[in-house]
Amino acid sequence: RLGRSAELSGLHLSPSGLGKSLACSFQFFGASLLDLKDVAAAGFPELTALERGTLCHGVLEKLAPVLRAGLPPPAREKSLVERASALLDDCVREKYPWALAPQFGIDLAALRALLAGFVPRYLALLRALGAVPLQPELPLRDAKDERPRFPLPTRAGGPADVGVGGRIDQPLLLADGRSLIVDFKFGKVAERLSKQAAAHADAQAPLYAWFLRTDPRFPDPVGMLYLSLAQPEAVFRPTTLGADLVDLFDEHATVVAEPDLDAAERVIATRLADLFESLARADARVPPVDDEAWKVWNHAKANPCQYCDLGLLCRARRRQ
Fold first, then answer.
1. What is the phi/psi pair of residue 291, to 5°?
2. CA distance 59 to 47
3. Cα dist. 9→158, 164, 233 in Å?
4. What does DSSP say about strands 179-185 and 254-255: parallel, antiparallel, or unpaired?
5. Which pLDDT tens digit goes with each residue over 21-47?
6. Could you give the CA distance from residue 95 to residue 59 in angstroms, rounded to a whole number?
7. Structure confidence by residue, pLDDT tens digits, 243-299
8. N vs C: which end of the chain shows fewer Cβ within 10 Å?
9. What is the pTM (predicted TM-score) of this model?
10. With the CA atoms of 161, 164, 165 and 166 taken in that order, what torsion angle do they form, in degrees rounded to the nearest 10?
């Protein structure tokens, strides 16, 4: 049903989900839409990666007003870490009260340790940039659906327009008046996102940059910064406006300067049009940008199979 262009036109989809579809449509359909899981990982009473990420995002959203009021000096960072731990309890009660059961104690203790390591790293980055958080959890469209829709090249038989909905984790206001998009990731980010960018499978960064640039409430963005919550890793993808910050970020993050987000936006628009056209044909295969880009994405440990939530079900079927 979703494959018909009349059904696709007017839909709202998430930027991260679109990126996953560009990498592997089969994996996205099975893991994100059907909620299939690897049998080997099923049946254990523990928080899922999505639940852990949701709790950490909730804590950082609640911390944002405190940080907007002023960054604490390094000597007072411990009190902010303690506050983050207390906010974690609040988020568990609000979102997953069943996780207060004793069997989830190890998971919650691990999240407290994760936040205790991440909060000082995040504060150090904010000080280095002279940045303060803007409105947290920025919606990409309001309740009346008045946000502009990302323009896709119109194809014969394809959807004329497809809306992209979601939330930006944290836009930052830099000291010079420009903005920076921050997206918090739960796992490792450097190798995976660098390869995604090279193979034009990262739809999230160019889409977020486009939305922020078209929102009159916010300054134009200098780029997008992916921050790992669990690892001391970060990836910075600049727009042309943020080219002067590449050297600064080189000390704090893996920099993906090529393609910049303005160029990536044009490529992603074409790739998304290809994706929706293939859906209209009920074809799960999405052609890569070109052979060289696909080799980059499919090389060694950087291919999407490394992160498969389906236990490589597609390979198992082929063996049968």
1. -60, -40
2. 16
3. 8, 11, 38
4. unpaired
5. 777 777 777 766 676 665 555 555 678
6. 12
7. 888 888 887 788 888 778 888 888 887 887 777 766 666 555 555 555 555 555 555
8. C
9. 0.79
10. 180
